[in-house]
Automatic annotation (TrEMBL):
This is NADPH:quinone reductase. CDD domains: MDR1 (cd08267). Residues 10-321 form the Enoyl reductase (ER) domain. Pfam families: ADH_N (PF08240), ADH_zinc_N_2 (PF13602). It comes from Micromonospora cremea. It comes from the Bacteria. One of its GO terms (molecular function) is oxidoreductase activity. PANTHER family: ALCOHOL DEHYDROGENASE RELATED, RETICULON-4-INTERACTING PROTEIN 1, MITOCHONDRIAL. InterPro entries: ADH-like_N, ER, GroES-like_sf, NAD(P)-bd_dom_sf, Quin_OxRdtase/zeta-crystal_CS, YIM1/Zinc_Alcohol_DH_Fams.
Length: 323
Protein backbone atom coordinates (compact mmCIF):
# COMPACT_ATOMS: atom_id res chain seq x y z
CA UNK A 1 0.00 0.00 0.00
CA UNK A 2 1.01 3.65 -0.40
CA UNK A 3 1.77 5.59 2.79
CA UNK A 4 3.44 8.77 4.00
CA UNK A 5 6.44 7.55 5.96
CA UNK A 6 9.15 9.14 8.11
CA UNK A 7 12.27 7.35 9.38
CA UNK A 8 13.63 10.33 11.31
CA UNK A 9 12.21 13.33 13.17
CA UNK A 10 12.31 16.63 11.32
CA UNK A 11 10.38 19.11 9.17
CA UNK A 12 7.85 18.06 6.50
CA UNK A 13 10.78 17.48 4.07
CA UNK A 14 11.55 14.19 5.91
CA UNK A 15 8.23 12.69 4.73
CA UNK A 16 8.20 10.28 1.77
CA UNK A 17 5.39 8.61 -0.16
CA UNK A 18 6.37 4.93 -0.21
CA UNK A 19 5.01 1.43 -0.86
CA UNK A 20 4.94 -0.52 2.41
CA UNK A 21 3.14 -3.59 3.77
CA UNK A 22 -0.46 -3.25 4.97
CA UNK A 23 -0.67 -3.23 8.79
CA UNK A 24 -1.61 -6.53 10.40
CA UNK A 25 -4.42 -6.69 12.98
CA UNK A 26 -4.82 -8.46 16.32
CA UNK A 27 -7.96 -9.92 17.92
CA UNK A 28 -9.37 -6.59 19.12
CA UNK A 29 -8.32 -4.60 16.06
CA UNK A 30 -9.81 -3.43 12.79
CA UNK A 31 -8.22 -2.88 9.37
CA UNK A 32 -9.62 0.29 7.82
CA UNK A 33 -9.42 1.10 4.12
CA UNK A 34 -8.65 4.80 4.58
CA UNK A 35 -10.66 7.34 2.56
CA UNK A 36 -9.56 10.47 4.42
CA UNK A 37 -7.27 11.49 7.29
CA UNK A 38 -7.46 14.54 9.53
CA UNK A 39 -4.42 16.79 9.96
CA UNK A 40 -3.95 18.35 13.39
CA UNK A 41 -1.11 19.88 15.41
CA UNK A 42 -0.42 16.45 16.95
CA UNK A 43 0.82 15.32 13.51
CA UNK A 44 3.39 18.11 13.54
CA UNK A 45 4.47 17.12 17.06
CA UNK A 46 4.94 13.44 16.09
CA UNK A 47 6.72 14.42 12.85
CA UNK A 48 9.24 16.75 14.50
CA UNK A 49 9.57 14.90 17.81
CA UNK A 50 9.19 18.34 19.43
CA UNK A 51 8.64 19.01 22.26
CA UNK A 52 11.28 16.40 23.16
CA UNK A 53 9.13 14.99 26.01
CA UNK A 54 6.84 13.44 23.38
CA UNK A 55 9.68 11.11 22.30
CA UNK A 56 9.25 9.17 25.55
CA UNK A 57 5.97 7.94 24.01
CA UNK A 58 6.71 7.82 20.28
CA UNK A 59 10.39 6.79 20.13
CA UNK A 60 13.52 8.29 21.70
CA UNK A 61 15.89 8.29 18.69
CA UNK A 62 13.54 7.58 15.81
CA UNK A 63 9.77 7.27 15.37
CA UNK A 64 8.36 3.91 16.53
CA UNK A 65 5.41 4.31 14.12
CA UNK A 66 6.72 5.22 10.67
CA UNK A 67 3.39 6.31 9.18
CA UNK A 68 1.98 9.65 10.36
CA UNK A 69 -1.65 10.62 10.96
CA UNK A 70 -4.17 9.53 13.62
CA UNK A 71 -7.63 10.82 12.70
CA UNK A 72 -9.21 8.49 10.15
CA UNK A 73 -12.39 7.87 8.15
CA UNK A 74 -12.86 4.89 5.89
CA UNK A 75 -14.40 1.47 5.34
CA UNK A 76 -13.78 -1.61 7.50
CA UNK A 77 -11.72 -4.07 5.41
CA UNK A 78 -11.14 -6.77 8.05
CA UNK A 79 -11.85 -7.36 11.74
CA UNK A 80 -10.05 -9.35 14.46
CA UNK A 81 -11.60 -12.41 16.12
CA UNK A 82 -12.99 -10.55 19.16
CA UNK A 83 -14.34 -7.49 17.35
CA UNK A 84 -18.11 -7.40 17.87
CA UNK A 85 -19.17 -3.78 17.31
CA UNK A 86 -17.96 -3.41 13.71
CA UNK A 87 -18.21 -5.48 10.52
CA UNK A 88 -16.50 -5.60 7.14
CA UNK A 89 -18.01 -2.92 4.89
CA UNK A 90 -19.01 -0.54 7.74
CA UNK A 91 -18.18 3.13 7.17
CA UNK A 92 -16.31 4.33 10.27
CA UNK A 93 -14.40 7.23 11.76
CA UNK A 94 -12.14 7.68 14.75
CA UNK A 95 -8.48 7.29 15.65
CA UNK A 96 -6.01 4.70 14.39
CA UNK A 97 -2.75 3.30 15.78
CA UNK A 98 -0.74 2.60 12.63
CA UNK A 99 -0.95 5.95 10.80
CA UNK A 100 -3.83 7.30 8.72
CA UNK A 101 -1.80 8.92 5.91
CA UNK A 102 -1.93 5.54 4.17
CA UNK A 103 -4.25 3.38 2.09
CA UNK A 104 -4.91 1.10 5.09
CA UNK A 105 -4.70 1.68 8.83
CA UNK A 106 -5.03 -0.46 11.93
CA UNK A 107 -7.38 0.80 14.68
CA UNK A 108 -8.63 -0.55 18.01
CA UNK A 109 -12.38 -1.12 17.92
CA UNK A 110 -13.08 1.12 20.93
CA UNK A 111 -11.58 4.08 19.07
CA UNK A 112 -13.91 3.79 16.06
CA UNK A 113 -17.61 4.47 15.55
CA UNK A 114 -19.98 4.35 12.57
CA UNK A 115 -19.51 7.43 10.37
CA UNK A 116 -22.34 10.01 10.57
CA UNK A 117 -24.63 9.23 7.63
CA UNK A 118 -24.75 12.86 6.48
CA UNK A 119 -20.96 13.40 6.39
CA UNK A 120 -18.49 12.74 3.60
CA UNK A 121 -15.33 10.84 4.53
CA UNK A 122 -13.41 14.16 4.40
CA UNK A 123 -15.81 15.70 6.93
CA UNK A 124 -15.72 12.62 9.17
CA UNK A 125 -11.91 12.57 9.22
CA UNK A 126 -11.98 16.29 10.11
CA UNK A 127 -14.24 15.51 13.07
CA UNK A 128 -12.46 12.53 14.65
CA UNK A 129 -9.90 14.10 17.00
CA UNK A 130 -10.80 17.79 17.04
CA UNK A 131 -14.49 17.40 17.88
CA UNK A 132 -13.78 14.82 20.59
CA UNK A 133 -11.25 17.23 22.12
CA UNK A 134 -13.78 20.08 21.99
CA UNK A 135 -16.50 17.92 23.57
CA UNK A 136 -14.24 16.74 26.38
CA UNK A 137 -13.02 20.31 27.06
CA UNK A 138 -16.62 21.45 27.49
CA UNK A 139 -17.33 18.56 29.83
CA UNK A 140 -14.09 19.04 31.80
CA UNK A 141 -14.98 22.74 32.18
CA UNK A 142 -18.53 21.74 33.25
CA UNK A 143 -20.18 24.22 30.87
CA UNK A 144 -23.82 24.81 31.80
CA UNK A 145 -26.76 26.50 30.10
CA UNK A 146 -26.67 30.27 30.43
CA UNK A 147 -22.93 30.53 31.06
CA UNK A 148 -20.71 32.98 29.21
CA UNK A 149 -17.95 31.08 27.44
CA UNK A 150 -14.88 32.58 25.76
CA UNK A 151 -13.16 30.38 23.16
CA UNK A 152 -9.68 31.28 21.88
CA UNK A 153 -8.73 29.85 18.48
CA UNK A 154 -12.46 29.83 17.67
CA UNK A 155 -11.81 29.55 13.93
CA UNK A 156 -9.36 26.62 14.20
CA UNK A 157 -9.79 22.84 14.22
CA UNK A 158 -10.82 22.34 17.87
CA UNK A 159 -12.25 25.85 18.30
CA UNK A 160 -14.71 25.61 15.39
CA UNK A 161 -16.24 22.50 17.03
CA UNK A 162 -16.11 24.06 20.51
CA UNK A 163 -18.15 27.07 19.36
CA UNK A 164 -20.91 24.82 18.01
CA UNK A 165 -20.87 22.45 20.98
CA UNK A 166 -21.07 25.21 23.62
CA UNK A 167 -24.20 26.44 21.83
CA UNK A 168 -25.61 22.89 22.07
CA UNK A 169 -24.89 22.99 25.84
CA UNK A 170 -26.82 26.29 26.07
CA UNK A 171 -23.88 28.63 26.69
CA UNK A 172 -23.32 31.99 25.03
CA UNK A 173 -20.08 32.13 23.04
CA UNK A 174 -17.52 34.84 22.51
CA UNK A 175 -15.07 33.58 19.90
CA UNK A 176 -11.51 34.94 19.66
CA UNK A 177 -9.92 34.85 16.21
CA UNK A 178 -8.05 36.93 13.64
CA UNK A 179 -9.81 39.35 11.28
CA UNK A 180 -10.23 36.98 8.32
CA UNK A 181 -12.20 34.47 10.42
CA UNK A 182 -14.74 36.79 12.03
CA UNK A 183 -17.50 35.88 9.55
CA UNK A 184 -16.75 32.16 9.85
CA UNK A 185 -16.87 32.23 13.66
CA UNK A 186 -20.16 34.15 13.62
CA UNK A 187 -21.61 31.78 10.99
CA UNK A 188 -21.05 28.72 13.22
CA UNK A 189 -22.94 30.30 16.10
CA UNK A 190 -20.72 32.67 18.12
CA UNK A 191 -22.80 35.41 19.78
CA UNK A 192 -19.85 37.80 19.84
CA UNK A 193 -16.35 37.84 18.32
CA UNK A 194 -13.10 39.42 19.50
CA UNK A 195 -10.57 40.11 16.73
CA UNK A 196 -7.33 39.44 18.62
CA UNK A 197 -5.30 41.46 16.12
CA UNK A 198 -7.13 44.58 17.40
CA UNK A 199 -8.18 43.83 20.99
CA UNK A 200 -7.04 41.70 23.90
CA UNK A 201 -9.57 39.32 25.45
CA UNK A 202 -10.04 41.61 28.47
CA UNK A 203 -10.92 44.49 26.08
CA UNK A 204 -14.01 45.75 27.94
CA UNK A 205 -13.55 44.21 31.38
CA UNK A 206 -16.02 41.39 30.63
CA UNK A 207 -15.62 38.32 32.82
CA UNK A 208 -16.50 34.88 31.52
CA UNK A 209 -17.71 31.83 33.44
CA UNK A 210 -15.57 29.54 31.29
CA UNK A 211 -12.60 30.07 28.98
CA UNK A 212 -11.71 27.29 26.54
CA UNK A 213 -8.17 28.11 25.48
CA UNK A 214 -7.34 26.25 22.27
CA UNK A 215 -4.91 28.90 20.96
CA UNK A 216 -2.63 28.18 23.92
CA UNK A 217 -0.51 31.27 23.41
CA UNK A 218 -2.01 33.88 25.77
CA UNK A 219 -0.48 34.37 29.24
CA UNK A 220 -2.34 32.70 32.10
CA UNK A 221 -2.50 36.07 33.90
CA UNK A 222 -4.45 37.54 30.96
CA UNK A 223 -6.83 34.55 30.78
CA UNK A 224 -7.45 34.83 34.54
CA UNK A 225 -8.22 38.56 34.29
CA UNK A 226 -11.00 37.78 31.82
CA UNK A 227 -12.41 35.00 34.05
CA UNK A 228 -15.07 35.34 36.76
CA UNK A 229 -13.77 34.80 40.34
CA UNK A 230 -15.20 31.26 40.41
CA UNK A 231 -14.81 30.56 36.70
CA UNK A 232 -12.99 27.73 34.94
CA UNK A 233 -10.27 27.73 32.29
CA UNK A 234 -9.93 24.60 30.13
CA UNK A 235 -6.34 24.58 28.85
CA UNK A 236 -6.39 22.75 25.51
CA UNK A 237 -3.65 24.28 23.35
CA UNK A 238 -0.14 23.27 24.24
CA UNK A 239 1.74 26.11 22.55
CA UNK A 240 3.56 23.46 20.54
CA UNK A 241 5.99 25.92 18.97
CA UNK A 242 7.52 27.09 22.23
CA UNK A 243 9.80 25.23 24.66
CA UNK A 244 12.18 22.55 23.39
CA UNK A 245 11.48 19.99 26.12
CA UNK A 246 7.85 20.50 27.20
CA UNK A 247 6.56 22.85 24.49
CA UNK A 248 4.11 24.57 26.84
CA UNK A 249 2.45 21.34 28.06
CA UNK A 250 3.73 22.08 31.58
CA UNK A 251 0.88 24.59 31.91
CA UNK A 252 -1.70 21.83 31.43
CA UNK A 253 0.15 19.49 33.79
CA UNK A 254 0.48 22.11 36.54
CA UNK A 255 -3.16 23.23 36.26
CA UNK A 256 -4.63 21.10 39.12
CA UNK A 257 -1.84 22.19 41.46
CA UNK A 258 -2.23 25.91 40.65
CA UNK A 259 -6.01 25.56 41.16
CA UNK A 260 -5.43 24.63 44.82
CA UNK A 261 -4.29 28.18 45.55
CA UNK A 262 -7.16 30.19 44.01
CA UNK A 263 -10.94 30.30 43.66
CA UNK A 264 -10.73 30.05 39.85
CA UNK A 265 -10.39 26.51 38.49
CA UNK A 266 -7.81 25.52 35.87
CA UNK A 267 -8.14 22.20 34.11
CA UNK A 268 -5.60 20.76 31.71
CA UNK A 269 -7.44 18.92 28.97
CA UNK A 270 -6.01 15.64 27.69
CA UNK A 271 -8.25 14.18 25.01
CA UNK A 272 -9.22 10.53 25.49
CA UNK A 273 -10.24 8.70 22.31
CA UNK A 274 -13.44 6.77 22.97
CA UNK A 275 -16.19 5.49 20.71
CA UNK A 276 -18.87 6.71 23.16
CA UNK A 277 -17.87 10.34 22.44
CA UNK A 278 -17.80 9.73 18.69
CA UNK A 279 -21.32 8.28 18.96
CA UNK A 280 -22.53 11.34 20.90
CA UNK A 281 -21.01 13.56 18.19
CA UNK A 282 -22.65 11.44 15.49
CA UNK A 283 -26.10 12.14 16.88
CA UNK A 284 -25.37 15.89 17.15
CA UNK A 285 -24.04 15.92 13.58
CA UNK A 286 -26.94 13.90 12.17
CA UNK A 287 -29.42 16.24 13.90
CA UNK A 288 -27.72 19.22 12.24
CA UNK A 289 -26.49 20.80 15.51
CA UNK A 290 -22.80 20.42 14.58
CA UNK A 291 -21.15 20.59 11.14
CA UNK A 292 -17.41 20.28 10.52
CA UNK A 293 -15.71 23.25 8.89
CA UNK A 294 -13.11 22.25 6.30
CA UNK A 295 -10.50 24.71 5.09
CA UNK A 296 -8.42 22.65 2.63
CA UNK A 297 -8.28 19.08 1.30
CA UNK A 298 -4.96 17.72 -0.02
CA UNK A 299 -4.27 14.46 -1.93
CA UNK A 300 -2.14 11.86 -0.08
CA UNK A 301 0.99 12.69 -2.09
CA UNK A 302 0.76 16.33 -0.93
CA UNK A 303 0.57 15.51 2.78
CA UNK A 304 3.82 17.44 3.49
CA UNK A 305 2.14 20.60 2.09
CA UNK A 306 -0.94 19.95 4.25
CA UNK A 307 1.26 19.77 7.36
CA UNK A 308 3.23 22.89 6.34
CA UNK A 309 -0.05 24.77 5.90
CA UNK A 310 -1.30 23.67 9.32
CA UNK A 311 2.04 24.57 10.92
CA UNK A 312 1.64 28.17 9.72
CA UNK A 313 -1.00 28.22 12.50
CA UNK A 314 -4.00 29.85 10.79
CA UNK A 315 -6.29 27.21 9.26
CA UNK A 316 -9.98 28.18 9.03
CA UNK A 317 -11.46 24.99 10.45
CA UNK A 318 -9.84 21.70 9.50
CA UNK A 319 -7.21 20.48 7.04
CA UNK A 320 -7.80 17.03 5.54
CA UNK A 321 -5.79 14.54 3.46
CA UNK A 322 -7.89 12.55 0.97
CA UNK A 323 -6.61 9.04 0.30
N1 LIG B 1 -5.13 18.77 25.00
C1 LIG B 1 -5.44 17.91 24.03
O1 LIG B 1 -5.76 16.75 24.27
C2 LIG B 1 -5.40 18.41 22.62
C3 LIG B 1 -6.05 17.73 21.58
C4 LIG B 1 -6.06 18.29 20.29
C5 LIG B 1 -5.36 19.48 20.07
N2 LIG B 1 -4.68 20.07 21.10
C6 LIG B 1 -3.95 21.33 20.93
O2 LIG B 1 -4.92 22.36 20.77
C7 LIG B 1 -4.35 23.40 20.00
C8 LIG B 1 -5.32 23.78 18.90
O3 LIG B 1 -5.49 22.69 18.01
P1 LIG B 1 -6.25 22.94 16.65
O4 LIG B 1 -6.33 21.63 15.96
O5 LIG B 1 -7.49 23.70 16.90
O6 LIG B 1 -5.19 23.89 15.91
P2 LIG B 1 -5.45 24.87 14.68
O7 LIG B 1 -6.48 24.28 13.78
O8 LIG B 1 -4.11 25.24 14.15
O9 LIG B 1 -6.13 26.16 15.34
C9 LIG B 1 -5.44 27.04 16.17
C10 LIG B 1 -6.14 28.39 16.01
O10 LIG B 1 -5.61 29.33 16.94
C11 LIG B 1 -5.79 30.61 16.35
N3 LIG B 1 -4.95 31.58 17.09
C12 LIG B 1 -3.62 31.75 17.03
N4 LIG B 1 -3.25 32.73 17.89
C13 LIG B 1 -4.38 33.15 18.51
C14 LIG B 1 -4.67 34.12 19.52
N5 LIG B 1 -3.72 34.88 20.06
N6 LIG B 1 -5.95 34.26 19.94
C15 LIG B 1 -6.93 33.51 19.41
N7 LIG B 1 -6.74 32.59 18.44
C16 LIG B 1 -5.47 32.41 17.99
C17 LIG B 1 -5.46 30.39 14.89
O11 LIG B 1 -6.25 31.18 14.03
P3 LIG B 1 -6.02 32.67 13.60
O12 LIG B 1 -5.82 32.71 12.12
O13 LIG B 1 -7.29 33.31 14.02
O14 LIG B 1 -4.79 33.12 14.31
C18 LIG B 1 -5.98 28.97 14.63
O15 LIG B 1 -7.27 28.99 14.03
C19 LIG B 1 -2.99 22.90 19.52
O16 LIG B 1 -1.99 23.42 20.38
C20 LIG B 1 -3.09 21.40 19.69
O17 LIG B 1 -1.81 20.79 19.89
C21 LIG B 1 -4.70 19.57 22.35
Amino acid sequence: MKAIVHDVYGPADVLELRDIDKPSIGDDEVLVEVRAAGVDPGVWIFMTGRPMAVRLAVGLRRPKVAVLGRAVAGVVAAVGASVTRLHVGDEVYGTCESGSFAEYAMARQHRLAPKPANLTFDQAAATAISAVTALQSIRDARVQAGQRVLITGAGGGVGSFAVQLVKVYGGSVTGVCSTSKIELVRSIGADDVIDYTRYEIDRDGAQYDVIIDTAGNRPLSLLRRALAPRGTIALVGGGHAEGRIMGGFQRQMAAPLISLFMTQRLCGVTARERHEDLEELTSLIESGSVTPVIDRVYPLADTPDAIRYLAEGHPAGKVVVRV
